[in-house]
Give the backbone structure.
Amino acid sequence: MKSLQWQDVVMVLGALGAVALWHRGGLHTITTVSEPSHLYSTHPVPFVVTLCSGGNRSVKIANVTTDERQLRQTIVLLKSAALATRTRLRFILLSDDIGIYEKVTKKIAQWPPEFSSRILLQFRPIFVPKESSILEMYDRCSTERLYLPRVLPDVDSVVYLDTDMIFLRPPELLAQQFNLFDQKHVFGMAQLDGYYSSINVAVPYVGKGLSAVPLLVNLTRWRQGSIDEQTLEAIILGFKDRFDTGDQDVLNMVLIEKPDLVYQLGCEWHGHLEQCTETKWECKSVQRDGFSLVHGIRGRFLGDEHIEFNMYSRIIFRSWEEHVPGEPMSALVSRLQESLKSSVNRDFCRCKLEALFRFFIDGSSYEEEFVKSIEKFCTT
């Protein structure tokens, strides 16, 4: 890909717009560094992620324990957000262990102030009603999104994320999707093209299925009675032996009867490798504009690298994990490009490279040259 002028990468990334915003605090907050004078004010919509200690339940897969995987993924998620934004983002970490929160803040503090100051990390304890039947099947930390109105009673709206996600575009662009909600919308969810139909799940779902992450939620409207906990509990009791994805299944079943509560996000906000390999997962916006957010679903970022999807997912994750904030983004691109040379699937290679790198291109000025260079790279 030598024909690309990668020095423009930094210029393009640096030109990404920032939004001047403010939100009231009140949470347990650790400020890791002093705030640079040039920094914009904090984005009003917080991003939420759950990270808990597995304790005796922490399982080792591919020589990585559950706790280690979740911690490493969370740090990469936050790093990708800091690299992509030029505003200050508020992240709320839901956890059962303040020690985990302190480990994350310690890692962020090691970044240059230009980047560490873009992340305002706050702690909240997890909460699930003791009487909830879902605790018979899942641990407390894997069902938090069903109880966000009670977990965050003083917050109006949130963007809920899984730890295994990497931002390729400014996170504030995802939060801005709230501006497209109408008077009834409570949730912003992307469609799950292909997943539910491919595994023949035994529970009802909306359309082709809706992904519970990323999940945009207007918590104020939810509290006003859009969905009550009695309804959630009835669904859990009635279908608990048929769940495949837990709380995602529950939300899909609730929304079958209330489709007007959902604003559908573009599939580029739930990017995964099937969108590059299988026609039933086709996402035209990814083919046109590239991924906005990559999801390492089903443990792929740190899973068994001998499985093809896992291998490519690990390459992507490792490139972001090894990248040092402050280094040119062109270094990350070169490292990722070099690692992907091992691809034996040309169509997959072409789609993946385009999907990952299109966000570096400013408009269409380099489009033709860019596509030609990808084609050459993947066929030689």
